[in-house]
Design brief:
- Helices cover 50% and strands 6% of the residues.
- α2 packs antiparallel against α3 and α14 packs across α16.
- By secondary structure, the protein is an alpha/beta fold.
- The longest helix is centred in the middle third of the chain and has 20 residues.
Length: 441
């Protein structure tokens, strides 16, 4: 038996359509098997809260082995996993095709799904993962101002903590009544000759995402400006819903399926019409690139959308490879402290954001390959916020050490999490905004 695997990792389909997936006894047998392998390895101890929690449970048990840990305590490990996927991608030597067949994130997802199906889920968690409903309500005129005011007041934040378990410490997303759909919904794609390459069609349909529509519509505006400056027509996709990642992390696979059915129908039609698809949020891109294809490996439309889905900077660098990227930059950006988002890393595309920004004269990009610990919802939960900030501390320290002109992350929420850790009044600037600034647009 080999210690590790020298072959490229491969992912198996999730298998949630099989009865065994939902069998709690079978689940706990698999949890014990994988936890025992993790206990004997411990390479992932620095990644998140799941592994230190597991190893502490083992070390404090009577046997100092996994068999000494109470089965009910397994849920403590599960609750700390926010499906960043870094253990699978960067640390674990036992992922398939290794015979031990360890896929820790998808085992945690299975456990979350079983837990959710049992009804063991908090109202708070259902609420904060309902991003469509929250966004539609909180972005209403006047309501958005009220929500933003409430979310910034100490007294109301303490009330949210005591009633819902939403920590008073993290920076909560702001809501805009002037959403991206309102700003760009009637945007007409650039009237220009469409130049295709071997890997891109040369015209892009933008999946706004809940966050990009309601919380930071500037991301979509910047993307449209940058892409059309490069001769790439962009249209905003209409009538989409949440990508499903928040509900996936909750284990609500039924809602994930409903959202998939709504979105894929629209997006597959666009692909048939020759559009590539892009989102400004790495987690949403990953949902269509990886998670939905692993949940629905036999759905032809899901696979069609997967093949047409791109990260924004992946797309721009593919165009650059074909000699089609506009490199006439007007403004240098100086030194950039760049946090590499986890859900972008696991797309296996390389550091395309760094590569694109490094094309700008008199610009230096300093990557930070550590998880920020934000996870979209994890840091908002009172019981997990301290751990989220602990995970972020090495990133914050690197930003301070870099002493850069600006700090950034492809994950806008991670950028604000770093902002909270710095606590010095400085603000992150998204890479799309930086690129727009460099072009002088």
């Amino acid at each position: 038996m080999r210690e590790g695997s020298l072959e490229a990792p491969t992912r198996h389909p999730l298998g949630h359509e099989k009865a065994e997936f939902w069998d709690e006894n079978a689940l706990f047998e698999e949890l014990e098997r994988v936890f025992d392998i993790c206990h004997g390895c411990r390479r992932c101890v620095s990644l998140c809260g799941s592994f230190p929690t597991l190893f502490d449970l083992v070390d404090e048990s009577d046997t100092m082995e996994v068999d000494g840990v109470a089965k009910n305590d397994y849920w403590k490990v599960v609750d700390h996993c926010y499906l960043c996927d870094l253990c699978y991608l960067t640390k674990c030597p036992y992922v398939p095709p290794h015979e031990w067949n360890v896929d820790f994130p998808h085992l945690m997802l299975r456990a979350k799904a079983v837990k959710f199906k049992k009804g063991d889920v908090k109202f708070r968690d259902k609420l904060i993962t309902s991003t469509d409903a929250l966004g539609k309500f909180a972005s209403l005129p006047v309501i958005s101002q009220t929500v933003n005011a409430v979310n910034s007041m100490g007294a109301t934040r303490k009330l949210l903590d005591s009633t819902l378990g939403i920590s008073p410490e993290p920076i909560l997303p702001k809501y805009h009544s002037n959403t991206l759909q309102k700003r760009e919904g009637k945007h007409q794609p650039l009237a220009a000759e469409v130049k295709a390459t071997e890997t891109t069609t040369g015209k892009v349909a933008l999946f706004a995402t809940c966050y990009g529509n309601y919380n930071e519509p500037q991301l979509g505006e910047d993307l449209i400006k940058v892409f059309e400056h490069n001769g790439i027509p962009v249209k905003l996709i209409q009538d989409t819903r949440c990508c499903g990642m928040p509900k996936l992390e909750l284990g609500d696979l039924e809602t994930v399926t409903e959202l998939k059915d709504a979105n894929i129908k629209i997006m597959a039609q666009l692909v048939d019409e020759g559009w590539d698809i892009i989102t400004p949020v790495p987690s949403c891109t990953l949902m269509f690139k990886q998670e939905l294809p692993l949940m629905f490996p036999n759905d032809a439309d899901v696979l069609k959308v997967q093949q047409a889905m791109f990260d924004p900077f992946e797309y721009l660098m593919l165009r650059h490879k074909a000699g089609l990227l506009n490199t006439d930059f007007k403004n240098p950006l100086g030194k950039i402290s760049y946090h590499v988002a986890c859900h972008q890393r696991v797309q296996n595309i390389g550091m395309k954001t760094r590569d694109a920004l490094n094309l700008i004269p008199d610009t230096e990009v300093l990557p930070i390959e550590r998880c920020s610990g934000h996870d979209g919802a994890y840091t908002f939960k009172s019981e997990f916020h301290d751990m989220a900030m602990k995970i972020c501390r090495p990133v914050v320290n690197r930003v301070k050490q870099n002493d850069a002109d600006v700090y950034t992350s492809d994950c806008a929420m991670a950028g604000h999490h770093i902002e909270a850790g710095l606590a010095d009044g400085s603000k992150p600037e998204h890479p799309l905004s930086l690129l727009r600034r460099a072009y002088g647009l």
